[in-house]
């Protein structure tokens, strides 16, 4: 047993009748790591998160959470907190009462300072005495995060925590998660927002049709990955286009440039070929004004890997 | 309070679980924070007192309700009128609003997962929710009972109460029996609570889950109005809502009451067990898994229908309840009418300041027929006719009086005096609490549905 792992899953399988929701899932999440979980709808993410939170048990396989094997009983070890499909809040209670009731339920400190602290962490101090009934989705998400923080978790499992958050709220939540990870708390983050995952996660696991199709660092994903589309803005689009056509390993995506401005050019390439194109542009005296992937490496990998999986079914 | 450390011996995992007491407190906080529950508590503790006080002050009394005709005479009639109303309407509705929503509210709010992550034991969640729901319901029932009793006692006073067979209960006896009647009604209320829990677990967000106890109670009431065999009638948990009537006869008709209470408790246990098993089998990772028609049928309706069948068989085999027939026979009607008449005649004699006479001296008997059936008449109906005969000490002639009876299928009857008017006509008599209608003019009675050893 590796005690540095917050989660160690081997061959986890979970079926609902004839439907195989999880099919031999392996997953390692290190302590203090923010680990992204990505997959198309129905891939089995929620089921996996449910297993981590103790909401369900696996049909087969071995799951260790915080160094403790999880048995057949429907409960996760202490130190695990989080939410799936949005936080559950009681609308007739205020934000503070929601937290106080949950803290009392778990036997944690219900002193005002403790609750004030987590409300402050998620930026809800100003609405502490308001009933949750009137909260927006973003506020509910933040209150759900506060409820999880109240238990001082060592493993935080979150499903779409950025849903409904405005940019400031998102930055707030990102800050909280980053600080938690720095303090040694592991975070498993399921999201469809690739920008969130890229900003927060050091590793990701991509699931499709109940199977892991990739698990590892984002850098590995980018390096391993196939060609990406890049948007190229230059001082001389025609010259740039010709140079791109002449460079080995570069393909011009016809018709895509128009969607990115009149002067835009979209090329598909691996990183070494792209480097070569940039050198050639500079040597030819063409100024490079912008070079950026049309979609993030994670999103591209997600689409490529999950498409492959779907096609293989 | 410290957290309970539960060790999963199969895996060695240590999980800090929330104790039932803490979960119970959490559930109570949630329930009490709802305006609906607060209003119900307030209404149950205030409205009955106002209702009983208001009705007791009126010239016209609710004579079609059991003990309604005695609301001017005794403060203890008020809580019994309220009990009759509660059994028919208030308790099923209160049960629906509390028990029918205990589990469904988590589906509605989407809070199951949060709760499970926090408590980590569906078993404890179930127990905490059930006990919290029961606590609120008991608070509401206690409010109905205490408030109506207070309203009656303050407005009318702590006076003797006329029982269902005409005998007079002292105020202390009346108090004890009123309390017992309310306690007995807790049994069918528990059965409805359990049905509400089952509906709440099986039907989830569906409004049917909320309405189930009220619908079941309504169905039971309709069933009690039908001419069902006694064994079937007693096998339904709703019977205990009316079986408390037997406490107010002398001797008390305890057989049907005890059977009704036991049947209700068995229903409560089985429905709760079904709800518990279904709750534990639920998949909490699937938000849409909040019940289905098929499961409602297989896990809810079929077992309870089986319970009715088993109840009928057991009651028919182990008691004197006839497996067929209404249980309302000529001899029982005659005996009940004669007994009530004797008690009330003695009361009338005292109220008219005539020479004191006892029931034993009167030797009252009744000869009853139903429609054109003179011998072996039976069954409910408003075509019963009884001729009551009695003897007065030192008077050779036999007195006779005629009554038209309306006997309902649950054994309750109303006797309406049909002459001679000097005996059972309408006139006012002077009583310690003021002028009141002649007690022999109209009176309520109760026929015990079980077979009795007497005549």
List the helices and strands and how they pair.
The complex is a heterodimer of chains A (313) and B (455).
Chain A (H helix, E strand, L loop, with lengths): L4 E12 L2 E12 L3 E5 L6 H9 L6 E6 L2 E2 L10 E4 L11 H12 L5 H10 L15 H13 L5 E5 L7 H16 L3 E5 L3 H7 L2 E6 L2 E7 H7 L3 E7 L2 H10 L4 E2 L11 E6 L1 H13 L4 E6 L3 H16 L1
Parallel strand pairs in A: 3-8, 3-9, 6-7, 7-8
Antiparallel strand pairs in A: 1-2, 1-4, 4-5, 9-10, 11-13, 11-14, 12-13
Helix pairs in contact in A: 3-4
Chain B lengths: L3 E5 L4 E5 L2 H13 L2 H23 L19 H22 L5 H6 L2 H8 L2 H34 L5 E2 L5 E2 L1 H33 L3 H19 L4 H6 L4 H4 L10 H27 L12 H26 L11 H22 L7 H4 L2 E6 L10 E11 L6 E10 L4 E6 L3 H4 L3 E4 L2 E4 L4 E5 L9
Antiparallel strand pairs in B: 1-2, 3-4, 5-6, 6-7, 7-8, 8-11, 9-10
Helix pairs in contact in B: 1-6, 2-3, 2-6, 3-6, 3-7, 3-8, 6-7, 7-8, 7-11, 7-12, 11-12
Folded structure, characterized:
The complex is a heterodimer of chains A (313) and B (455). Chain A is of the alpha/beta class and 313 residues long. Chain A has two domains: 5-222, Rossmann fold, CATH 3.40.50.300; 225-312, 2-Layer Sandwich (Alpha-Beta Plaits), CATH 3.30.70.250. Chain A has ten helices and 14 strands. Chain A has helices spanning 45-53, 95-106, 112-121, 137-149, 167-182, 194-200, 218-224, 237-246, 271-283, 297-312; strands spanning 5-16, 19-30, 34-38, 60-65, 68-69, 80-83, 155-159, 186-190, 203-208, 211-217, 228-234, 251-252, 264-269, 288-293. A six-stranded mixed sheet of chain A has the order 6-7-8-3-9-10, with helices on both faces. Chain A has a four-stranded antiparallel sheet with strand order 2-1-4-5, with helices on one face. A four-stranded antiparallel sheet of chain A has the order 12-13-11-14, covered by helices on one side. In chain A, strand 9 and strand 10 form a beta hairpin. The longest helix of chain A is centred in the middle third of the chain and has 16 residues, at 167-182. Chain B has helices at 20-32, 35-57, 77-98, 104-109, 112-119, 122-155, 171-203, 207-225, 230-235, 240-243, 254-280, 293-318, 330-351, 359-362, 421-424; strands spanning 4-8, 13-17, 161-162, 168-169, 365-370, 381-391, 398-407, 412-417, 428-431, 434-437, 442-446.
């Amino acid at each position: 047993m590796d005690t540095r792992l917050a989660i160690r899953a081997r061959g986890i399988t979970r079926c609902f009748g004839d439907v195989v929701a999880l099919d031999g899932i392996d997953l390692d999440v290190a302590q203090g790591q923010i680990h992204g979980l990505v997959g198309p709808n129905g891939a089995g993410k929620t089921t996996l998160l449910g297993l981590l939170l103790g909401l369900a048990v696996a049909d087969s396989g071995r799951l260790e959470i915080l160094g403790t094997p999880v048995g057949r009983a429907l409960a996760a070890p202490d130190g695990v907190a989080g939410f799936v499909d949005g936080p559950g809040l009681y609308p007739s209670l205020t934000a503070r009462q929601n937290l106080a009731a949950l803290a009392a339920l778990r036997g944690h400190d219900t002193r005002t300072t403790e609750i004030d602290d987590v409300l402050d962490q998620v930026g809800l101090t100003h609405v502490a005495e308001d009933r949750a009934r009137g909260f927006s989705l973003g506020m509910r998400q933040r209150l759900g995060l506060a409820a999880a923080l109240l238990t001082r978790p060592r493993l935080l499992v979150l499903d779409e925590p950025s849903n409904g958050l405005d940019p400031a709220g998102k930055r707030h939540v990102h800050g909280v998660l980053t600080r938690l990870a720095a303090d040694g708390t592991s975070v498993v983050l399921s999201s469809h927002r690739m920008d969130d995952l890229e900003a927060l996660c050091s590793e990701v696991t991509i699931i499709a049709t109940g199977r892991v199709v990739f698990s590892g660092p984002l850098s590995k994903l980018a390096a391993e990955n196939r060609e990406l589309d890049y948007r190229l803005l230059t001082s001389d689009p025609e010259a740039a286009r010709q140079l791109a056509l002449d460079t080995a390993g570069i393909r011009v995506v016809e018709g895509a440039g128009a969607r990115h401005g009149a002067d835009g050019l979209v090329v598909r390439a691996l990183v070494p070929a792209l480097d070569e194109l940039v050198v050639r542009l500079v040597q030819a005296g063409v100024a490079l004004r912008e070079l950026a992937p049309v979609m993030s490496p994670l999103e591209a990998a997600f689409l490529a890997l999950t498409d492959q999986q779907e096609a293989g079914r | 309070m410290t957290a309970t450390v539960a060790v999963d011996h199969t895996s060695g995992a240590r999980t800090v679980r929330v104790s039932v007491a803490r979960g119970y407190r959490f559930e109570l906080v949630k329930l009490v924070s709802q305006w609906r529950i607060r209003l119900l508590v307030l209404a149950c503790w205030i409205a009955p007192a106002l209702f009983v006080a208001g009705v007791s002050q009126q010239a016209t009394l609710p004579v079609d309700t059991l003990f309604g005709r005695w609301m001017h005479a005794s403060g203890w009639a008020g809580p019994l009128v309220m009990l009759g109303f509660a059994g028919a309407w208030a308790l099923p509705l209160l049960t629906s609003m509390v028990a029918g929503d205990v589990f469904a509210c988590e589906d509605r709010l989407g809070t199951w997962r949060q709760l499970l992550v926090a408590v980590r034991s569906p078993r404890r969640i179930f127990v905490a929710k059930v006990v919290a729901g029961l606590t609120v319901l008991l608070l509401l029932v206690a409010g109905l009972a205490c408030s109506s009793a207070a309203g009656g006692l303050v407005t009318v006073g702590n006076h003797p109460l006329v029982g269902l067979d005409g005998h007079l209960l002292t105020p202390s006896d009346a108090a004890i029996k009123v309390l017992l009647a309310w306690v007995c009604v807790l049994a069918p209320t528990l059965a409805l609570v359990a049905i509400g829990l089952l509906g709440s677990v099986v039907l989830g967000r569906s409004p049917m889950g909320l309405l189930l106890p009220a619908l079941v109670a309504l169905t039971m009431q309709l069933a009690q109005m039908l001419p069902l065999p006694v064994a079937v009638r007693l096998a339904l948990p709703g019977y205990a809502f009316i079986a408390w009537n037997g406490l107010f006869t002398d001797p008390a008709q305890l057989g049907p009451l005890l059977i009704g209470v036991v049947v209700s408790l068995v229903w409560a246990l089985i429905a709760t067990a079904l709800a518990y098993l279904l709750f534990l089998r639920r998949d909490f990772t699937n938000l849409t898994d909040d019940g289905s028609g098929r499961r409602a049928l297989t896990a809810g309706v079929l077992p309870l229908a089986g319970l009715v069948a088993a109840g009928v068989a057991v009651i028919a085999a182990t008691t004197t309840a006839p497996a067929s027939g209404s249980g309302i026979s000529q001899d029982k009607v005659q005996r009940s009418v004669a007994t009530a008449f004797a008690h009330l005649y003695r009361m009338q004699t005292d109220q008219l300041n005539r020479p004191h006479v006892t029931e034993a001296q009167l030797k009252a008997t009744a000869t009853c027929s139903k429609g054109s059936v003179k011998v072996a008449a039976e069954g409910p109906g408003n075509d019963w006719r009884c001729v009551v005969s009695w003897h007065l000490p030192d008077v050779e002639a036999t007195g006779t009086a005629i009554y038209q009876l309306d006997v309902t299928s649950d054994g309750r009857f109303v006797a309406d005096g049909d002459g001679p008017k000097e005996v059972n006509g309408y006139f006012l008599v002077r009583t310690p609490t003021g002028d009141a209608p002649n007690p022999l003019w109209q009176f309520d009675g109760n026929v015990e549905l079980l077979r009795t050893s007497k005549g």
